[in-house]
Specification:
heteropentamer; A alpha/beta; B alpha/beta; C alpha/beta; D mainly alpha; E alpha/beta; A: alpha/beta; 3 domains; five-stranded mixed sheet; three-stranded antiparallel sheet; 14% strand; globular; D: mainly alpha; Fumarate Reductase Iron-sulfur Protein, Chain B, domain 2; 12 helices
């Protein structure tokens, strides 16, 4: 899955589309940014490595013209979910898939090098070598990857028109996906309540998590900011912060594709995705549903069964 | 904003356990409240006048009435404030009677609770917006589903009232169960003789368009404007050409077709006219038995038909009709005897169901009215009737009483004696249910004049011994087990919901109970209405019924339709969903969850894709509002802000 | 009611207009005595109940929330309660995860004729919430 | 005969005791008589099954506990299978026997002795051992003659076919089985104290 | 290695008075390649006498055996005897209640967790092995036999507990016997009680009921009865002479275990199936047997004739 192969595909696709969305180098070696390619010259600058963290699929619903997008396995679930919800016209999208063995959490890398300015970044099999003024540091990618990569079930995109590389199978057991949720549930009610209170209290309501979320379709109409309806006030209290995160979680019920963008962009390091992951684990349990996996599925909150096999009436 | 608050004493109903004066005093303290008072009977005429006067005097623009349940008097007070010049949606009611005064004795706690209830109503009314109904035209045609006696009655009454009627009947002829009965209780008059003229009327009435052997495929629309798709099932006979001469039936070589009309008492031909009085009197081929269909060769009927009506290539046809109201008269079904394994199920030919016996008694039935045992065609001398064969039996899911069996068993016992004077009938019963005019006297006659032996107890087992059927039951009055050596056993099988009742209810959007019977709008005061406006019920589809009740309901449903159609325009309820196109992002999740398909995709002039509500279809459930992530679609009168204001009125930390 | 004891707690009920609100009316007409903690908000259908109303109530002062609609198959709008069932079941599990005891939230089905069942639901749920005590430290919030 | 004064003679405590112990609700019975109609033993009963149900509904404790019917029920389950009200009638009869035993009211001593002998044999030999059981039964019931006749009826036919062994199977008693009976007695005693 | 394997509980009667049931069942299972494993040290299930005394005691006597099977890590226990079956099913059912379970386990040395399903051997043969397999094993067809299939009262009752076949008109044995190529009569008294429970204590009562069953079987045109319950077998087989004496009837109707009939059809020798242990001698009826292949041919011939 070399960058060369990717460029080849981009060049092949370009004449058919308005834009190809990929990645390019950012302001320093460790920051890669999204890249909207229009010409063969642009294509030359395209980059693919473990620092290509952004979920580029998130741009699709807002684009009208035919677009090609480069996606990792995890990002492809966003597209599948868009298809389920009818948010994109599949015939208007060209998907370039990239098999991926895991990306790097920039936050974790920066922490590992004590937030020193990065001078250079190199990769050598499954390792990342960071050069700062204090010298070189070699980190195993597995040690600095985001949590989602540790239990990744879809290293190869679920949907694609072109694949830059050979498909790879997941090596992670499927049961591992929600292990952290199960682990967390071992805490007492009080511990959990305190945990979320403390975490959400850190929130500065910058809405970065929402803005980065590919499934937050409301954009400027988000009810966290409207007066009609007026769901939450501007008061900076624990309750209002909690309310905001509950809105985000409930609106994503049965839709969160676990791309992790919300947590990646959170400036306060709040585990924003935890509630959504919990809901996902319940969607699996209740409806045997996993978001963003099968384009034919119906999101469970928008449908029902007259007899629900797994929902039992609760006794008082 | 100037809110007026009226606290009702309801005599001592409320004032007895709520300090109404204090509630009014507390209400006065709430910002926005300009006037608050308490009154003895707010719903009385002087009470309403008081509200109207206060609106004028105090210049009030919103009203809260704290009284009984809004389900009781919301409409009353809406009209009151409307008369005083306010939009009727500027009214809120606080239910301080049913939900407070009547369910607790602690006056202190009740008063606190009432203050909260009033605060919530005040908070909400301040969020209320004026709403205006729009009116639309009614299509004054009516669809009647089911051509049994109830459906025919409804159809004839509507047609005589000048309405165009579309009557859809599933089977090849109208008449339903009643057309199969021999005589009717308690007058012993011939069933088909009294029903026949009605059937003819239905067939000939210029206002009635009859679709026999047809089913409802799809129902779309709303009160005043329904679009109905009707599936005309293939009969393989062109009914335009068929004269009902019956030649085909005579010559048809497939003699072993199942006879639906006679409940399988005897076989019929693969091409048949169900019974001599059938309306329409047309032939129909049963492809499950027809040699042409099974073996690809025969064609006797096609050759013999003098008008060339036979068409083996015929396909189902879908036609569309537009109507403004629907009468559902789909009738009932009978329990499958096979479930009753202790009675042999259908193992023993001489254990038959009541309706089958009815066909044996009937002069136009397969035995020309001679009672004979299905097994050997001999005349039975000892006949045992078993009531509650499945009815009142929780263990098979029929806990209810089928209602009419006691009566028809008495009738059959009487008729049996008439047919076979030296016969003896036995009737096993648990209770005799005969609460109609002349009904109980009738069951007495069966015993007193016709000598039927009534045995109080259930039958436990029926089995053959030699040529006899042994019926083993209990006589609980004697306190013993009894056995009867019978020649024929007749089971009064339970009345159950018609086949496909649930699917039909889904198409109609009406509710049905766990047994599949349709649920009326109110068990006492709205017996033929459903919760879907424009859809009415008649007959046994609502629950087991005898003929007079079914006819009564048919007429009642017709009266409802005629009264509905006495207007030219209908007003739509403005408490429906409304889209804020500025906020709508066009994700169309609301479209997916709307139970009424009342939401469609729309494109604004700007090219923006948004959701759009079809006002006349929206029923106002609000599922869309709780689906929409951006609050762009709001159910009027129950908007997010209105409900949130109620929440905040009581949840303040 | 005496068996509940202690001070009243705040319980918010969302009742559908056609079944459960009617059921509560029926209970009233039958004079079926109930604890007084419950405050009822009338909604057209349980399908109208956005789970976020429940969240909002629990976050801003309610100690318990009750949602009641028509029995499955009996929804006045045919399907509203089916959506409610999925949403509210999801919410119930989420609340427990967040550290809000799932017993503080109950959703159920009561028809307009089930006055006695309504009495039972209110009595039992109020008792259940009282067993858990107040959700919020009211004193702290008073400042 | 005087009228049965139901105000005085309805034993409500008995009804409640029965309900609690059995978990069955006699009020479910609407007296259709199906149990009586199906019961193979009705002709031997002093009260047909449906009557037992009715006596139970009206709290006629003495009549029920002194009845032969509750002992002659063989638990063939016909009544339970056919009851339209889903009452486990055979279970009702079982629980009535339990109560009758406790209250020392046994109208059919022979039947009870047979059951006791059977269990005694199980306690001793851990499996039902027919010769042993019959011997215990004969001793207990005291009808040496009829029992000997019984033995004579069956004995020859069985012995010639190797169907009766005079010695119990190789597993001569099992301590755990005996302990079950011992612990059960203790449990019963403690219950009685309460 | 056998294809299927079950824990097997023969029951006390099968050790003595009904040995032939056990013997023939084992022979048939062997022929069907099913392994039966007996739990070591099994004891009486408690049967009817125990539940007339106390339900906890009854469940404990049954559960002791289920616990043995649980320890063997086997999910299903099969028993030929309907009485034992009912005892096990009742114990399982009642022990779904936690406090009842606690009481029962307090009487046991080794607690039982309720994980063993009890099924009759008839059910295993009908459902797990299946008619096709049975038919494929048939070697001989006994043309003289006209069989009334008799299930006894509690094989399928109460339905909520049995969860197998119809309680009023069961058909499992009918179908098995038909699969053996036998002539099966439509018998109305398949599940009527034969009165065996009172064989010792109320003989007259028992004889009356037994007479009815025999009479109905004869009425149905049967010349023998196939049974699945050891107590019924003993009762119907043993008392015919006495009933004849009392009533002047002339019953001489062999009462044969359905497993014996299966064994005979599969080609087992009468000795392997302990046919000799039956009291009413069936030898005369068993004399005429045909190779199945021949009967098939016969049928083919008839078909040919018919088509010609």
């Amino acid at each position: 899955m070399s960058t060369e192969k990717l460029k080849e595909i981009i060049l092949k696709v370009l004449p058919d589309v308005d834009t190809v969305i990929g990645w390019q180098e950012g302001f320093d070696k460790i920051h890669i940014t999204p890249f909207f390619m229009k010409s063969p010259e642009d294509a030359e600058k395209a980059v693919w490595n473990s620092l290509c963290v952004q979920n580029l699929a998130a741009y699709l619903p807002s684009l009208k013209k035919k677009t090609a997008v480069i996606v990792k396995g995890c990002d492809s679930r966003t597209i599948v979910q868009y298809m389920q919800e009818g948010l994109i016209d599949r015939s208007n999208v060209v998907i370039i898939g990239i098999p991926c063995t895991g990306v790097v959490s920039v936050k974790k890398v920066l922490k590992a090098v004590d937030y020193q300015p990065i001078e250079d970044v190199k990769f050598s099999d499954e390792k990342i070598i960071i050069k700062t003024s204090k010298g070189e540091k070699t980190l195993a990618i597995a040690d600095v990857c985001p949590d989602k990569c540790k239990t990744c079930q879809y290293p190869t995109p679920i949907v694609y028109d072109h694949l830059a590389g050979d498909p790879i199978e997941s090596t992670k057991p499927a049961e591992s996906v929600y292990e952290d949720i199960k682990e967390f549930e071992k805490k007492s009610l009080e511990e959990r309540r305190d945990y979320f209170k403390n975490e959400f209290d850190k929130c500065i309501r910058c809405y970065a998590c929402r803005n980065a979320c590919p499934m937050c379709v409301c954009q400027d109409s988000c009810i966290a900011e409207t007066r009609d309806p007026h769901w939450i006030t501007q008061k900076l209290s624990s309750e209002e912060k909690m309310m905001f995160h509950m809105i985000h979680a409930v609106h994503l019920a049965g839709r969160c594709v676990e791309c992790g963008e919300c947590e990646r962009v959170c400036p306060m390091d709040i585990p924003v995705a935890k509630l959504k992951k919990k809901i996902n684990s319940e969607m699996k349990e209740l409806f045997d549903y996993v978001p963003g996996v099968n384009p034919e599925d119906k999101p469970p909150m928008y449908t029902f069964n007259v007899e629900e096999a797994k929902i039992k009436e609760h006794k008082l | 904003m100037r809110v007026g608050v009226f606290i009702c004493h309801c005599g001592s109903n409320i004032a007895g356990t709520v300090d109404v004066a204090r509630v009014a005093a507390e209400a006065r303290k709430i910002p926005g409240v300009a006037f608050a008072t308490n009154y003895m009977y707010t719903c009385s005429e002087p009470g309403q006048d008081e509200i109207k006067a206060a609106i004028k005097r105090e210049n009030l623009d919103r009203i809260v009435v704290a009284a009984c349940s809004p389900r009781m008097h919301e409409n009353t007070f809406r009209k009151t404030i409307q008369k005083a010049g306010l939009n009727k949606y500027f009214l809120e009611m606080a239910n301080i009677r049913e939900h407070i005064a009547w369910i607790g004795n602690d006056k202190e706690l009740n008063t606190e609770k009432a203050i909260d209830a009033v605060s919530m109503a005040i908070a909400k009314v301040m969020q209320n917006k004026p709403l205006h109904a729009t009116s639309f035209k009614i299509n004054k045609r009516v669809l009647v589903i089911g051509g049994g006696v109830a459906g025919m009655q409804a159809a004839l009454d509507c047609a005589d009232g000048g309405l165009d009627v579309v009557l859809v009947e599933k089977s090849p002829a109208v008449g339903g169960i009643m057309a199969r009965l021999d005589k009717t209780f308690p007058t012993i008059d011939c069933s088909i003789c009294i029903l026949g003229p009605k059937m003819v009327d239905v067939g000939q009435h210029e206002k009635i368009k009859l679709f026999a052997y047809s089913e409802i495929e799809e129902i779309k629309g709303y009160i005043g404007n329904y679009q109905i798709k009707i599936r005309k099932k293939a009969t393989y006979v062109d009914w335009e050409k068929c004269t009902g001469c019956g030649l085909c039936m005579e010559k048809c070589p497939s003699k072993n077709s199942y006879d639906y009309f006679n409940f399988g008492v005897a076989p019929t031909k693969a091409i048949n006219i169900p019974f001599p009085q059938a309306i329409p009197k047309k032939a129909k081929i049963d492809p499950n038995y027809c040699r042409q269909f099974l073996k690809g060769k025969c064609g006797v009927c096609a050759k013999i038909c003098p008008t060339g009506a036979i068409n083996y290539e015929m396909k189902d046809e879908i036609v569309t009709e537009e109507v403004g109201a629907i009468v559902v008269a789909t009738g009932y079904g009978l329990l499958d005897q096979n479930i009753l394994t202790e009675y042999g199920g259908t193992r023993y030919p001489d254990v038959i169901s009541g309706i089958q016996y009815e066909r044996l008694l009937n002069a136009s039935g397969p035995t020309s009215g001679h009672i004979e045992r299905p097994s050997d065609h001999t005349e039975p001398k000892t006949i045992v009737f078993v009531s509650c064969a499945g009815s009142r039996d929780k263990s098979i899911g029929v806990p209810y009483c089928s209602g009419f069996c006691c009566m028809y068993i008495a009738k059959q016992a009487i008729l049996t004696k008439d047919h076979i004077p030296d016969s003896q009938s036995y009737v096993f019963y648990m209770d005799i249910r005969s609460p109609g005019k002349g009904y109980d006297e009738f069951t007495r006659r069966a015993q007193e004049e016709y000598g039927a032996q009534y045995i109080r107890g259930r039958v436990s087992k029926i089995y053959p011994k030699g040529k006899k059927m042994i019926v083993r039951g209990a006589d609980t009055l004697l306190g013993t087990q009894v056995e009867i050596e019978a020649d024929l056993v007749v089971l009064a099988t339970a009345a159950i919901a018609a086949e496909g009742a649930a699917e039909m209810a889904e198409k109609l959007h009406i509710s049905y109970d766990t047994f599949g019977f349709y649920v009326e709008s109110h068990p006492k005061l709205r017996p033929v209405e459903t919760n879907t406006s424009g859809v009415f019920l008649a007959g046994a589809c609502q629950g087991p019924k005898d003929i007079p009740s079914s006819v009564g309901q048919g007429s009642a449903a017709a009266a409802k339709v005629l009264s509905l159609f006495s207007r030219d325009m209908l007003e739509s309820d403005p408490a429906i969903a409304q889209v804020n196109t500025n906020a709508c992002v066009g994700c169309l999740k609301c479209l997916k969850t709307c139970p009424f398909q009342a939401i469609v995709e729309d494109t604004l002039r700007s090219g923006k894709k948004v959701a759009k509500v079809i006002e006349t279809v929206c029923a106002g459930c609000g599922v869309c509002t709780s689906t929409c992530p951006c609050g762009a679609i709001q159910l009027q009168h129950f908007t997010d802000n209105q409900l949130l204001s109620e929440v905040s009125a009581i949840c303040q930390m | 009611m005496s068996d509940v004891g202690t001070k009243e707690l705040r319980i918010v009920g969302f009742l559908c207009n056609w079944c459960s609100y009617g059921g509560a009316d029926t209970a009233g007409v039958g004079r079926f005595k109930q604890p007084t903690d419950l405050r009822i908000i009338r909604v057209p259908c349980s399908g109208r109940v956005d789970p976020l109303f429940v969240v909002r109530a629990l976050l801003t002062g309610a100690d318990g929330v009750l949602v009641s609609g028509c029995h499955p198959r009996d929804c006045h709008y045919s399907e509203g309660n089916y959506y409610a069932r999925r949403r509210l079941e999801m919410l119930r599990r989420l609340l427990q995860f967040m550290g809000i005891d799932e017993k503080r939230f109950h959703y159920t089905w009561v028809s307009a004729s089930e006055g006695q069942k309504w009495q039972q639901v209110v009595t039992d749920f109020t008792k259940q919430v009282h067993e858990l005590g107040p959700l919020h430290d009211k004193k702290e919030k008073a400042d | 005969m005087d009228a049965l004064n139901l105000t005085e003679k309805t034993d409500w405590t008995f009804i409640e005791q029965f309900k609690k112990e059995s978990g069955d609700n006699p009020s479910l019975c609407y007296q259709c008589g199906n149990c009586t109609a199906g019961c193979p033993y009705t002709h031997y009963f002093d009260y047909p099954v449906s009557m037992i149900m009715r006596l139970l509904q009206t709290g006629q404790k003495e009549t029920i506990l002194n009845s032969k019917a509750i002992w002659l029920c063989a638990t063939c389950e016909t009544c339970t299978t056919r009851c339209p009200c889903e009452i486990d009638v055979a279970h009702v009869m079982d629980v009535l026997r339990h109560i009758a035993r406790r209250e020392n009211k046994v109208a059919e001593k022979g039947v009870k002795s047979f059951y006791d002998s059977f269990l005694k044999s199980v306690k001793l030999f851990s499996r039902m051992y027919e010769v042993g059981m019959i011997m215990i039964y004969m001793l207990r019931y005291g009808y040496m003659l009829s029992a000997a006749k019984l033995g004579m009826d069956i004995g020859p036919k069985f012995l010639t076919r190797g169907k009766l062994s005079f010695f119990p199977h190789e597993l001569m008693g099992n301590a755990e089985v005996a302990r079950i009976f011992k612990k059960y007695r203790k449990m019963e005693k403690e219950r009685a104290k309460k | 290695m056998a294809e299927k394997k079950y824990a097997y509980y023969s029951g006390c009667s099968q050790e003595t008075s009904s040995k032939e049931y056990d013997i023939s069942l084992r022979a048939v299972m062997k022929a069907l390649d099913v392994e039966l494993v007996e739990p070591e040290g099994w004891s009486c299930c408690g049967s009817t006498p125990a539940h007339t005394v106390n339900h906890v005691l009854a469940a404990a006597l049954a559960a002791r055996n289920l616990a043995l099977v649980e320890k063997m890590n086997m999910p299903v226990l099969t028993t030929p005897c309907p009485s034992c079956l009912t005892a096990f099913k009742e114990a399982n059912h009642r022990m779904e209640n936690d406090s009842f379970k606690k009481d029962v386990n307090s009487l046991l040395d080794n607690p039982y967790n309720g994980t063993v399903d009890a099924k009759s051997s008839l059910q295993i043969i009908y459902e797990d092995i299946g008619l096709e397999t049975i038919a494929s094993k048939v070697k001989y067809v006994f043309t003289e036999l006209k069989v009334a299939p008799y299930y006894g009262c509690i094989m399928n009752r109460p339905p909520a507990l049995a969860k197998f076949d119809d309680p009023e008109n069961p058909i499992a044995m009918d179908k098995i016997l038909s699969a053996l190529g036998l002539n099966v009569c439509d018998f109305a008294f398949k599940t009527e009680c034969c009165g065996a429970g009172y064989g010792y204590t109320k003989k007259d009562m028992m004889k009356e009921l037994t007479y009815k069953v025999l009479d109905m079987a004869r009425d149905a045109g049967a010349n023998c009865i196939a049974v699945a319950c050891p107590v019924c077998q003993m009762n119907l087989d043993l008392n015919q002479k006495e009933i004849n004496k009392d009533r002047g009837s002339d019953f001489n109707m062999p009462v044969i275990y359905f497993t014996q009939l299966m064994g005979l059809a599969f080609g087992c020798s009468p000795k392997e199936l302990a046919i000799k242990k039956l009291i009413v001698n069936p030898d005369k009826l068993l004399k005429n047997r045909m190779l199945k292949s021949e009967t098939d041919k016969g049928q083919d011939k008839e078909k040919l004739k018919a088509s010609a």
